[in-house]
Amino acid sequence: MSDLEVRQLRYFVAVAEELHFGRAAQRLDMAQPPLSRAIRDMERQLGVRLLERTTRQVSLTPAGEVLLRDARTALEAVAAATRRARHAGRPEPVLRLALKADYDGGLLPQIVAAYQREEAAFPVELVLGGRGEQLPALRDGRADIALLPAPFDGHGLDVEPLLTEPRLAALAADDPLAARRRLHLADLVGKVLPDGTPADRGGLPQTTAPAGARDRELPHSEDHPSLAGTRPRHLDLAQIFSLIELGSIIWFPPVSVARRHPRPGIAYRTVSDLRPLTLVLAWPQETRSPAVAAFVRTATAVAAATGPIDHPSSDAPTAGRTLADAP
User: Fold this and answer.
1) 265 and 174 in a common domain
2) Are 300 and 151 contained in the same domain?
């Protein structure tokens, strides 16, 4: 039995995901008859049935379910290898750093400046993305190293802790809770975070997404009569701040982010039992790049020299006081 080709895997994945030969053929920009023949050839080649076909539907067999899982992994690996090879062959190489904007503990300018003095340094190219997008960038070859919050699924990665900093609750300045000196997670029952999850759960990243997490919406507009229309699921910082000021959501930014974004309509308050945020550097285990090693070495040295990030004095009881106003 000969090995399957990448082309065959792409054909099968398209059919297995669409469960419809016509839609799969359209997705692959090919005619349906040759696609059907290609799938039958795969089944003969493997000696197993991958799909059950009736006049009304197409479904996966147990063998097809296994192949779909592994074919996706194989295609992702091929795509990642292609990106890494092209990147390595660039005439002017760069170090691609994946991160979420502002999630650097305020240290990124210092780290990049110090890194550029290293003999093995490359110019740094930022791969910016939202929460949860750093790991895919590492795994599919779009980034060489990532700065991201723990915990996460670190399978196949090397990880180096960089810094740990407290998180605060960002809430509307006219929220009654803003008048309190100190909050607890139990005080936040009924409030939601930007991703729609309950605030009283603490809001740290999870190693695996909870069931239905991708389908969660923010509260409907009827819950907040001052708001109308559908809200985006993926919010940028300006959108998050606007929704906080309107009392639609709250947020748990790390102290370094809160310090950089004081706003009159937002109060930052300490939450006694809110776990801190730990930022780490992560990179593929197979990496042997001196540029990556130099970046890790430089970043950890800068973080160690800077020292821990402490809670600011954000316990003032006056609603509406921001971090900048706190003594």
Assistant:
1) yes
2) yes
